[in-house]
C-alpha cells in the first residue's frame, strides 16, 4: 500500500488484517488502532492510487502525476476527524476529572505509560493543570468545529499538531498521534496537493544530483530553472488558495 501497488486492494487487506487482529485479542489495541482501521477503509473506497503510485505508472501515466478525483472519500476523512474530537469532548465533560481541571494531572502520574516523567512542580500545580486540562478541551472543540472555517483552519490545525506532539513525547499512546496527523492531511488545500508530486520529484532530483556531484551541463541548468519556476508557481497558487 505504501508504494501504491494495487492500492485499493492493499488498503482493503490492511483493513481486514487490523479487524482480525482486534478480534483476536481486543485487549491490545487502543483508539489509535481504530483510527488506522477507519483510514484503511477510506483508502479502500477511494482512488488512492491516482498519484505517486506504481498503479499510476502501470496505467501508462507518470509516477509523479496528480489526478483530479471525486472528493467524497476526502470529506469522509474530514468528517471523521470532527466526529472524533466532538465525541472526545462530550465524553470528557460528562466525567468528573475534566470538568474539575485535574485530568492532565492524573495522566501525567500514570508511571507505566509515561515516556518522559513530568516534574512534580508541574503536576502538583492546580493553576497549570487547570490550564492544561481546559486548554486541551478547547483545542479539541476547535478541531471539531472551527476547523471548517477557512481562515481559522491553519491555526486550529497547528494547535492540534502541538497538542498531539506533546502527548506523543510524554505518554505512550501508540499510533493515535500519527493516525490523527493523517486525518489532518485531508484539509490540505487542493492546489498544494496538485503541486506535491512535482515538488517531491524536484526534491528527489536535487538530492540525487547533490549526492552524485556531477557537473551540470547547460541543458540541465535550463531544466532546473524550469522546474524551479514551476515549483514557484505551485507555491503561489497554494498560498492564494483558501484553506
UniProtKB/TrEMBL annotation:
UniProt keyword Cytoplasm present: no
Domain HTTM-like stretches: 1-192
Pfam families noted in UniProt: HTTM (PF05090)
Membrane topology: Multi-pass membrane protein
InterPro entries: HTTM-like, HTTM_dom, Sporulation_signal_mat
Keywords: Membrane, Transmembrane, Transmembrane helix
Subcellular location: Endomembrane system
PANTHER family attached to this UniProt entry: HTTM DOMAIN-CONTAINING PROTEIN (PTHR39535:SF2), SPORULATION-DELAYING PROTEIN SDPB (PTHR39535)
Major localisation: membrane
Entry's Gene Ontology cellular component terms: endomembrane system
The name this protein goes by in its record: HTTM-like domain-containing protein
Transmembrane segments: 155-187
Organism taxonomic ancestry: Bacteria, Bacillati, Actinomycetota, Actinomycetes, Mycobacteriales
Ranges of compositional bias, category Basic and acidic residues: 222-243
Region (Disordered): 206-243
Amino acid at each position: 500500500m505504501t508504494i501504491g501497488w494495487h492500492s485499493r486492494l492493499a488498503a482493503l487487506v490492511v483493513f481486514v488484517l487490523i479487524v482480525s487482529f482486534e478480534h483476536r485479542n481486543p485487549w491490545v489495541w487502543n483508539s489509535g488502532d481504530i483510527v488506522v482501521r477507519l483510514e484503511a477503509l477510506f483508502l479502500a473506497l477511494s482512488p488512492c492510487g491516482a498519484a505517486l503510485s506504481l498503479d499510476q505508472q502501470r496505467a501508462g501515466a507518470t509516477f509523479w502525476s496528480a489526478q483530479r478525483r471525486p472528493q467524497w472519500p476526502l470529506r469522509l476523512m474530514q468528517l471523521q476527524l470532527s466526529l472524533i474530537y466532538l465525541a472526545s469532548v462530550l465524553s470528557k465533560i460528562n466525567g468528573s476529572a475534566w470538568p474539575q481541571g485535574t485530568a492532565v494531572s492524573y495522566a501525567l502520574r500514570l508511571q507505566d505509560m509515561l515516556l518522559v516523567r513530568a516534574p512534580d512542580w508541574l503536576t502538583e500545580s492546580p493553576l497549570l493543570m487547570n490550564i492544561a486540562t481546559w486548554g486541551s478541551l478547547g483545542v479539541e472543540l476547535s478541531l471539531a468545529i472551527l476547523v471548517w472555517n477557512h481562515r481559522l483552519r491553519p491555526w486550529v490545525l497547528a494547535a492540534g499538531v502541538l497538542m498531539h506532539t506533546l502527548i506523543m513525547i510524554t505518554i505512550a499512546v501508540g499510533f493515535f498521534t500519527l493516525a490523527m496527523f493523517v486525518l489532518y492531511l485531508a484539509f490540505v488545500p487542493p492546489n498544494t496537493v496538485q503541486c506535491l508530486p512535482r515538488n517531491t520529484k524536484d526534491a528527489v532530483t536535487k538530492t540525487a544530483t547533490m549526492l552524485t556531484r556531477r557537473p551540470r551541463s547547460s541543458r540541465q541548468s535550463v531544466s532546473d530553472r524550469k522546474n524551479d519556476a514551476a515549483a514557484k508557481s505551485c507555491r503561489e497558487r497554494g498560498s492564494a488558495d483558501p484553506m
